[in-house]
């Protein structure tokens, strides 16, 4: 996953990686607002603990970080942020941005299999994985997702995507926050969601809740300095 980013805090020589993100330009990473603040961006690594893993990673300090102005830390509404690197990320065949879904008619389809990745814990309250892991999960309808979380004071609407198996067992978990939920369209992967929250991890009947990237087109383009209608 050449666009996969680990976001860290602390000293650049020995950062603690706390979240994921996705490279969306040679200077910008999209992640979850609840991951901020962060200090370090590492792009395209495989094993965070091992420099001899064959990965061609690029690490840099954070220049600026901007959470969505309407981000709500209690409800995790509008849980999206853009992190800017200090230097330009040198792009290679093994390190490049993922496509944004703004031109897609169907950014996610109920029942469709989507891809999640991260270095997060492999069980609720467990240890994080130094290796980048990935999994496939199906998109769950917003109605089913709302019903699952009905007793919680959380707003789930078309700014979200939900994904997971009814029987549980496969999910994002702590430390995966901010990482991508990816859909493939005509052989091109798109970052359609951002790992945001859920009830524990991989619990039956509790899908993972993701920020829907397409719902935040204006905010993202503003941060990237893109004009609204020019591609």
3D architecture notes:
The chain is mainly beta. It folds into two domains: about 80 residues, Thrombin, subunit H (Beta Barrel), CATH 2.40.10; about 100 residues, Thrombin, subunit H. About 5% of the residues lie in helices and about 35% in strands. It has two helices and twelve strands; from the N terminus they run ββββββββαββββα. The protein has a six-stranded antiparallel beta barrel. Strands 7-8-9-12-11-10 form a six-stranded antiparallel beta barrel. The longest helix is centred in the last third of the chain and has 8 residues. The protein starts with a strand and ends in a 7-residue tail after the last helix.
Tell me the layout of helices and strands.
Elements: E1 4-9, E2 16-23, E3 28-31, E4 40-43, E5 58-67, E6 81-85, E7 113-118, E8 133-140, H1 142-148, E9 160-163, E10 180-185, E11 188-197, E12 208-212, H2 217-224
Short note summarizing the structure:
The protein is mainly beta.
Q: Describe the global form.
A: globular
Main sheet overview: 6 strands, antiparallel, barrel
Can you give the mean pLDDT?
Answer: 96
SSE string, helices as H and strands as E: EEEEEEEEHEEEEH
Instruction: Determine the fraction of residues in helical runs and give it as a percent range.
Output: under 10%
GO molecular function, one term: serine-type endopeptidase activity
Protein name: chymotrypsin
InterPro entries: Peptidase_S1_PA, Peptidase_S1_PA_chymotrypsin, Peptidase_S1A, Trypsin_dom, TRYPSIN_HIS, TRYPSIN_SER
Keywords: Disulfide bond, Hydrolase, Protease, Secreted, Serine protease
């Amino acid at each position: 996953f050449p666009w996969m980013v680990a976001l860290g805090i602390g000293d650049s020589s020995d950062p603690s990686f706390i979240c994921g993100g996705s490279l969306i330009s040679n200077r910008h990473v999209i992640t979850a607002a609840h991951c901020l603040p962060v200090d370090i961006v590492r792009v395209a690594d495989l094993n965070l603990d091992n420099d001899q893993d064959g990965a061609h990673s690029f690490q840099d300090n954070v220049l600026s970080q901007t959470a969505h102005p309407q981000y709500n830390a209690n409800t995790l509404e509008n849980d999206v942020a853009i992190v800017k690197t200090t230097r330009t990320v040198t792009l290679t065949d093994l390190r490049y941005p993922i496509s944004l879904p703004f031109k897609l008619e169907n950014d996610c389809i109920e029942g469709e299999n989507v891809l999640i990745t991260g270095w997060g814990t492999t069980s609720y309250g467990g240890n994080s994985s130094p290796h980048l892991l990935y999994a496939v999960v199906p998109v769950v309808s917003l109605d089913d997702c709302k019903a699952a979380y009905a007793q919680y004071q959380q707003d789930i609407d078309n700014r979200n995507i939900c994904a997971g198996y009814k029987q549980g067992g496969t999910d994002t978990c702590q430390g995966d926050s901010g990482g991508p939920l990816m859909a493939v369209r005509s052989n091109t992967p798109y970052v359609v969601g951002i790992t945001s929250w859920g009830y524990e991890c991989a619990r039956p009947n509790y899908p993972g809740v993701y920020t829907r990237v397409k719902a935040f087109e204006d905010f993202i383009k503003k941060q990237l300095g893109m004009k609204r209608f020019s591609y």
